[in-house]
Write a structure and sequence with these properties.
The complex is a heterodimer of chains A (252) and B (201). Chain A is α/β, with parallel strands linked by helices. Chain A contains five helices and eleven strands; from the N terminus they run βββββαβαβαββαβαβ. Chain B has 201 residues and is mostly beta strands. Chain B is 7% helix and 30% strand. Chain B has three helices and eleven strands; from the N terminus they run E-E-E-H-E-E-H-E-E-E-E-E-E-H. The chains are: A alpha/beta (252), B mainly beta (201). At the A-B interface, strand 3, strand 4, strand 6, helix 5 and strand 11 of A face loops of B.
Chain lengths: 252, 201
């Protein structure tokens, strides 16, 4: 385990919303200008803090959906019914509004071209990404980063979305990406359907003998199920890194 | 001074506020699962619990021997650094005081180590004097693997990443050595009431 972490104090920074855009039917893309943002690695997250007029504060974590090359910070926020923070972010916040955030946080669930640069392309272990729903956020940062960096590390994404209207990422989902739809597909859908299981992983993900570095992000049950399946398929547990998210309404 | 967000307000009950550390929310009946890697599956026949390191007499218990140790029941609030808190969780297991009693501890820190390679560091004072347990039972049932079964550390007065899942032992250290998340910028001690989430908090 690398012990190269930077023990840097994380101060609250003022972030100004520049855009609040629809990213899918249930997810908004919030774009921030952050004063003094120190930069980040694809896969890291931020803590967002909201303070009410009576002094009440709430904090939530969000994966960063934009690559380090983008000077602005993009967060993909799902509007969770009954949530305390997400409805404010997605429905109330408008361009020009400020909030506080701090980060980047986390140094384990990351991949970057710089970290691979010392390894010749043919000796690099490929990167396998497995996403459930809005768990694709950190992977969009990785894919965008890989594309902008012109990085030769092979990267594949297996991405489970409910319906075609829920798919995030647009043209970042290139030929290395496979989307499976779990709640019905349009008539012209040519991709797979159904949940990520052993068969889908065998067909659309790097096999264990390719020695991929595997990243899994999504709702907690999705992550637990996929991780167990990956181990059953023969991927070593040490090659599998997990990130979970979920609002208060998420089944645990 | 925090930036005030107009139109933002509390949406949850305030009845439990005196039990809710700053920046946390009550997750209610849910019990979220968090781990950095896959859930290990260690057969009980191959499981043991170890106290080693700066001790006069290293200790080892098989599963059967661990189950024979004096047991305690605790009902505690737990607080995860990812912001959720859960009130009144019920656990059963063995006090760390019991595990250390015959070891002859000579250091002031411990590193908990686990199946799957996870580690976390704690001052000895945070795991002794009735403040920490190795638990194998949650809510009257054997602890589920995704929640750390067969056994996990329980240090409820610190953020829950200190309550290492799948714990296999405690290594007593002469000095503080950061564990897994502590190496990645999380706070060395992790007191939720002082909101010690990250290094420097």
């Amino acid at each position: 385990m690398a012990r190269a972490a930077v023990q840097r104090r994380l101060t609250w920074l003022r972030a100004r919303l520049t855009d609040n855009l629809p990213a899918s039917t249930r997810v908004r893309r919030l774009v921030f200008d952050v004063d003094g943002w120190p930069g980040h690695l694809p896969g890291q997250h931020v803590d967002v803090r909201l303070t009410a007029e009576d002094g009440y504060t709430a904090q939530r974590s969000y994966s960063i959906a934009s690559p380090p090359e983008d000077p602005r910070l993009h967060l993909l926020v799902e509007d969770l019914p009954g949530g305390e923070v997400s409805p404010y972010l997605t429905e109330e916040m408008q361009a020009g509004d400020d909030l506080e955030l701090r980060g980047p946080i986390g140094g384990y669930f990351v991949w970057s071209a710089a970290a691979d640069a010392a390894t010749p392309a043919e000796r690099r272990r490929p990167v396998q990404l497995v996403a459930g729903g809005a768990g694709v956020s950190p992977f969009l940062a990785m894919l965008d980063h890989a594309r902008r960096a012109g990085d030769p590390t092979p990267v594949r994404l297996l991405y489970s979305a409910r319906t075609a209207d829920d798919v995030l990422g647009g043209d970042l989902l290139g030929p290395g990406a496979t989307v499976t739809l779990t709640r019905g597909a349009p008539p012209d859908w040519t991709g797979p359907t159904g949940r990520v299981d052993g068969a889908l992983l065998q067909e659309h993900a790097f096999p264990p003998d390719a020695r991929p570095r595997v990243f899994v992000c999504g709702p907690t049950v999705f992550v637990e199920t996929v991780a167990t399946t990956l181990v059953d398929l023969g991927h070593p547990p040490s090659a599998i890194r997990l990130e979970r998210f979920g609002g208060i309404g998420d089944p645990a | 001074m925090s930036l005030v967000s107009r139109r933002f307000g509390r949406r949850r009950s305030a009845t439990t506020d005196d039990r809710l550390p700053p920046g946390q929310y009550d997750t209610g009946d849910l019990f979220p699962v968090l781990s950095a890697g896959p859930t290990p599956r260690t057969p009980l026949a191959g499981w043991d619990l170890v106290v080693r390191g700066e001790v006069a007499a290293p200790q080892t218990w098989t599963w059967e021997e661990f189950r024979e140790l004096p047991r305690e029941s605790v009902s505690v609030d737990i607080h995860c650094v990812t912001k959720w808190s859960k009130f009144g969780t019920r656990w059963e297991g063995v006090s760390v005081d019991t595990l250390l009693a015959d070891a002859g501890v000579e250091g002031s820190y411990v590193v908990a180590f686990c199946d799957g390679g996870y580690t976390t560091n704690l001052p000895l004072d945070d795991v002794t004097d009735g403040r920490a347990w190795v638990v194998d039972t949650y809510d009257g049932q054997p602890l589920a693997p995704e929640h750390g079964g067969p056994a996990r550390l329980l240090v409820p007065h610190l953020y829950f990443w200190k309550s290492a899942k799948w714990v296999r032992g405690l290594s007593v250290r002469p000095r503080n050595e950061p564990g897994f998340w502590e190496t990645f910028g999380y706070h060395d001690r992790g007191d939720p009431w002082r909101e010690q989430r990250y290094s420097g908090d």
